[in-house]
Design a protein that fits this description.
Blueprint: H1 3-34, H2 44-56, H3 63-71, H4 73-82, H5 100-114, H6 122-134, H7 138-151, H8 174-183
Helix pairs in contact: 2-3, 2-4, 6-7
């Protein structure tokens, strides 16, 4: 293969990758516009009106929190049936039935939801409650943690960072951070 042929072939590959990435980006933009629309109407709205204020005051994953989820069962069952960014949408397959696009929306949803609850912490959720609840592997857990830390940091500052708080792109050993907190 000569130089011109190599460049031509490489440019064709780059264009194909760009086309596929645009397809995924379009899917994500559609989901951003439609995310959780069913919470704005029957049968979900009345139950979310009742339970959202309660959930804001509860610790994520606590017994009290789980009791509130039971009260939301009718709304949640409807909601999970409508949206593939919830593992429950896939029944027994759970998270294994999801696509990468589903997982991206899910981790963004988890991050935003963690910001709405008392003592919400997406990293602790991934490391504990969510991994146990949805039975995902340690490898997928690490991918979620990497995504939160690299892509979803607030204002470029890692919420788990105990350093100077300046923006950075370092991936922390999250398990080590929380082990240190438990030891204190």
């Amino acid at each position: 293969m000569d130089k011109e042929e190599c460049i031509k072939e490489t440019k064709a590959h780059i264009a194909e990758v760009a086309k596929l990435l645009q397809k995924i980006a379009t899917q994500l933009l559609h989901r951003a516009r439609m995310h959780d629309d069913t919470k704005l109407k029957e049968p979900e709205l009345p139950l979310f009106m009742e339970y959202t204020p309660k959930l804001k005051e509860q610790v994520f994953g606590s017994d009290e929190y789980n009791e509130s989820l039971k009260g939301l069962k009718v709304a949640l069952d409807h909601h999970y049936n409508e949206y593939p960014h919830h593992p429950e949408h896939f029944g027994e397959a759970g998270i294994k039935g999801m696509s990468l696009v589903d997982l991206i929306e899910m981790i963004c949803d988890w991050k935003a939801s963690s910001m709405r609850t008392k003592d919400g912490d997406i990293v602790k959720s991934i490391n504990g409650y969510s991994q146990k609840r949805f039975k995902f592997s340690d490898e997928l857990k690490q991918i979620f943690l990497n995504t939160v830390q690299r892509e979803l940091m607030e204002d470029g500052v890692c919420s788990s960072c105990k350093g100077d708080g300046k923006p950075h792109d370092t991936v922390h050993d999250v398990d080590k951070i929380y082990q240190e907190e438990e030891d204190e």
